[in-house]
Design goal:
Number of domains: 2
Number of helices: 1
Number of strands: 13
Helix content: under 10%
Order of helices and strands: EEEEEEEEEHEEEE
Distance between the termini: 19 Å
Strand order of the largest sheet: 4-13-12-11-9
Length: 209
Amino acid sequence: MAERQASATPVDSVQPFNRIPFAGDTNPDDGIQHFMAEGLENGVKYYVSVRVVYPDGTLSRSSAEIPVVCGPRGEIELSFRFRSEHDGYSFAKDHYVRANALDNDLYFYTKDGIDYLGSPSRLDGFLRTNNFSTLPFRGELGEIRSQVATLGRLPFGDRIVINEGDWILMRTPEDRYALIHILGFSGQGVKRSVRLFFAYSTAAGEKLF
């Protein structure tokens, strides 16, 4: 059951988001169940917990709460800067923009055989100044999300060297964060491009993806 909680109220006293019991395990082989919580708002911090309905209709105690924030996520491919209309991306608007657009968040380029992501402000001082940090671990999204929440102070810069498999944390001037996974590269020189997965946190100051 997904629950929205505005204070430290005990979880058992909060009204459930879904009032109809979940149908149950539809695929015993994967060990994972998915529930789609519709109607949630971007930028709102929610707290999620689950309870089990036993065959006799009784309920288990609630599990530990997990804080979540809804926001855009997906895969994109960035071309070399200024080489196509897909050379920049706005995470807040969740669509491609040009590298020198006012709402662009990052651009890609290669120099001396090294691949980089850069802040738009490096192209023009009037553009957005976003900063990047390479996370000190690798793995799947679920593992990375839990580790990001425990990170201390990180070194950030307005450009960053990237390699396949890296996880990058990007911070915006509005104190919002994007989690970026470097999926791979294709092409050479100015025809080179990078494929990324991203998850964007719409709540200021929250590293919740």
